[in-house]
Design goal:
Blueprint lengths: L1 E8 L3 H10 L10 E3 L2 E5 L11 E6 L9 H5 L6 E3 L2 E4 L4 H13 L6 E5 L12 E5 L4 E6 L2 E6 L10 H8 L7 E4 L8 H6 L3 E6 L2 H13 L6 E5 L2 H4 L7 E6 L9 H7 E14 L5 H11 L4 E14 L2 E11 L1
Parallel strand pairs: 6-7, 11-12, 11-14, 12-13, 14-15
Antiparallel strand pairs: 1-3, 1-4, 2-3, 5-6, 7-8, 9-10, 15-17, 16-17
Amino acid sequence: MEAPCVRVERERGEETRTRLAEANLLAEEFEIEVAEGYLYLPVTDPEAVPDELEVVARAVGERDTPDTPTDLLGFEPTYERLGDIVILDEDDSDRARDIADAVMDSDIPVKTVVNRASKVKGELRVRDWEVLVGDGTETVHREYGCEYLLDVAEVYFSPRLATERHRVAEQVESGERAFDMFAGVGPFVVPFAKRGAQAVGVDLNERAVEYLRENARRNDVEERVTAIQGDVREVAPEYADWADRVVMNLPHSADEFLDSAVELAGDDCAVHYYDIQHEDDPFGPGEAAIRAAAEPDYDVEVETRHAVRSYAPHELNVCLDVRLSR
C-alpha cells in the first residue's frame, strides 16, 4: 500500500523516528521500509512534518500483528529510546513494570528498560534509575552519523536534543577552533571535529570525560579532540582568546560562566548560549547577561533567537546564537 513517508539516511533513522513518534506522526499500522541506504518512515499527516524533513510517497507493508507497546497495552505509553535502552518516567511502579513488559514483548530492538527514580541532581547532572529489565545502563547511541558510548547512570545525556545539536554542528567549518564548556560525552565536540574543527571539551564529570575520549576514538576524530576533566573556570585561562566558537549548554546556570566564555573568545567568536526562561520573555535575560559580560570589549550581535523545546508549563529551553566581535 502506498503511504506518505519521511525519507531519511539510515544513520539518522533512529533520532528521526523518535522525533516523529514524540510528535505522534508515526503511522504505526505500516512497516518501516529500508532501501538503498535510506529509511522510509510512514507518517499520519505529511502536512505536519517539519519542513526540513523530506516526505515522499512509498509503497509500504501493513502491520498485521500486535507488535508495538501500544498494541499490547491498549494505551499509548510515553518513553524515550537511547541506544538499546528504553527510558520511562512513571510514578506508578506497577504501570512502569507493565510498560516494561510490553516494550520487551514488542518488536522494539531493546535490551534494557529503566525508570527515572530521581530528577537530575548535583553538579554532575546525573539521576538515579530503577532498572526494570536488563542488567546494565551502558549503551551505544547513534545520531547524525556519530555514535556515543555512555552510561545513563553516570553521565547526563538527552536524546531529545539531537536535532538541536545537529543545527549547531552544521554551522561549523573546517579549521575552526571550538570549545564546549560543558561537554559531557561529546555530542557537540565529536560532530564539530568530524566537520574539521579542532575541538576542546571540558566537563566536571570524570566518567563523562572518559566516555568523550572513547567517543572521539570511535568516530575517528581523536586527533582533533582535546578532553579535559575539571572546572571550566579554571581551564579557561589556558585557552584565553583561543575560540572561534563556544558552546554553553548548561541552561539553568550558564550565566554564571559568561566571564569565562568571554575569556575564551577570540577576536570573532560565535557563542551558543542555552537558557531556560518564562515564555513571556525567553530571550531577554540571556541577551542582557551576555551584553553585561562582553561589552564594551566586544560588539554583541544576536544572530539567532531559537526556541529549542518546551521545558515546563510556561517555560522554554532556548538558544541564543551570538556573535562576539572584538
